[in-house]
Design brief:
Elements lengths: L6 E5 L5 E2 L4 E6 L9 E5 L5 E2 L5 E2 L6 E5 L7 E10 L5 E10 L3
Parallel strand pairs: 2-9
Antiparallel strand pairs: 1-3, 3-7, 4-5, 4-8, 6-7, 8-9
Length: 102
């Protein structure tokens, strides 16, 4: 199709300030190819934060989420993602959000 595989929105939203999220959820323009999506959550110190494997939403396969297993400390986090859409190209992106102190 004319549309490339891309991220349309997320929770937490890019550049937002939130309390510690239970999950990171990504909305894509296309249904990603099977097992093609990887999501990494990077802490303010540059370490990888443990998350679940990416899951497709049962109701809408364009939505992918990972569960965050523990409370995140305050600071700036980066979500780094990649996926493969209809055209077979690997697309990568990243965005940041801030966790505010509880």
């Amino acid at each position: 199709g004319a549309f490339h595989f891309a991220l349309t929105k997320s929770t937490p939203a890019a550049d937002s300030a939130v309390s510690s999220p239970d999950e990171v959820r990504l909305w894509f323009t296309q249904v990603p190819q099977q097992n093609s999506v990887a999501v990494r959550l990077i802490s303010p110190t540059g370490d990888l934060v443990d998350t679940s494997d990416p899951r497709l939403d049962q109701a809408d396969a364009k939505i992918v989420s990972v569960t965050v297993d523990r409370a995140l400390r305050a600071g700036g986090y980066t979500v780094s993602w990649r996926g493969i859409g209809d055209d077979g190209h690997v697309v990568r992106g990243e965005f940041g959000f801030n966790v505010s102190a509880q």
